[in-house]
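Entry 12.
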Amino acid sequence: MRVQNQQVFVLEDEPDIGRMLCRTLDQHGYRSELFLRAADFQRRMRTRQPTLCIVDLGLPDEDGLQVVRDVQSRYGTPVIIVTGRGGVLDRIIGLELGADDYVVKPFDPREVVARVGAVLRRAGRPADSNNGNCSDLAKFGDWVFDFDRHVLTAGDGREIDLSAAEAQLLQVMVRQPNRILSRESLLGLQAADDRSPFDRSIDVRISRLRQKVEPDPRRPQVIKTVYGAGYMFTASVEWVAKGG
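Predicted 3D structure (C-alpha cells):
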C-alpha cells in the first residue's frame, strides 16, 4: 500500500502517546507531524494542510472540539478524534462537528492507523493513491500550481509568482473544488490578530488570483462568486506528484 504522500498531523498533548502514534503512522508509510499545543497546530495549518488530522480533545490551551470545528469549517480536512472522553455525549458532539471517526483511550495505535486508512477511503482520498498533498502539483485548466514554490506555470512555460497569502488561498481552493467556501472560513486562514468582521482582504486576494488564472477576469469561470455564500473553485483538478 503506497501511502508515502499522505501527511497526518497529530495534535496530542501527551508526548509519549503522540510519539507512539506518530511512530506507528511512520512505520506504515505515512508522514506524521506531532503538535503538543493547539496554537502550534493552528499556526502550521495556516501554511500547510495535511491529508488528515488526529486531534485530542483534552488540550491545555484550547477545547479540542473547537479545534475540530475550525479544521472542518476552514479546511475541510478529515479528522479523527482520539481522547480519554468516552461519554456518548462527547462522541455525538464530536461527530456532529464534523469529525470522521472517534477513538477512545487507551487504544492500540495500529487500530488508529487502520481507521486513518478507512477514513481516507470514505473521503475519496484512498491511502494507496495520490490525492493532493502539499508536496504535489495541482493541474487545472492551462495551469500547474506549485504550492511549495508559490508559482503558477502556464502551458507555454511562463511562470507567475504568487504571494504567500495568494498561494495559501489557492491551495485551500484547489483542495476543495466545486465546494462553496465562505468568506468567513477563508478569512480564518489569517492570524486572529489580522482579521475583523469587515476585512476585505479575501476579496482583494480573490481579485488578484482571478487576474492571474482567468482568461477574462471580468467574467470569472475558474473562481466564481456564489452570491450571499462565498466563492467556489470550479475547475477540474488533477494532482501530480513532483518528479512523477
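Annotation: The chain has eight helices and 13 strands. The chain has a mean pLDDT of 83.
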